[in-house]
Design goal:
With about 100 residues, this protein is mainly alpha-helical. About 95% of the residues lie in helices and about 0% in strands. It is built from 1 helix and no strands. The longest helix is centred in the middle third of the chain and has 95 residues. The protein is rod-shaped, with a radius of gyration of 43 Å.
Length: about 100
């Protein structure tokens, strides 16, 4: 207990509440910075998620349009194939009729 009369000890004890206040403020500041960084990371993640979701939706719309065009083209080709089958059947009948005459 020899330190109680020391001027350095008295100064340190006098500054202790102020140093504790500064340390507490530094801890609050560190926590605030950490929370801010977490919020920035969360906002960045959400923005990337929404950008990816938007890109996926746009791609899905493009694929839907391609599918619609493909279905239309297939329907047109089916009509053309049906016409070609009919024409081939008629030609085969003519060929068989001609061969039957000979």
């Amino acid at each position: 207990m020899a330190n109680f009369g020391s001027p350095a000890h008295n100064a340190a004890m006098g500054n202790l509440p102020g140093m504790m206040l500064v340390a507490g403020g530094a801890m609050c500041l560190a926590r605030g910075v950490s929370d801010a960084l977490d919020a920035v990371a969360e906002a960045r993640y959400r923005r990337q998620y929404h950008d990816a979701l938007g890109a996926a939706s746009a791609h899905a719309r493009e694929l839907e349009n391609v599918a619609r065009v493909a279905v239309t083209l297939i329907a047109e080709l089916e009509v053309e194939v049906a016409g070609l089958r009919t024409a081939c059947a008629q030609r085969q009948e003519v060929i068989e009729a001609l061969v039957g005459r000979a």
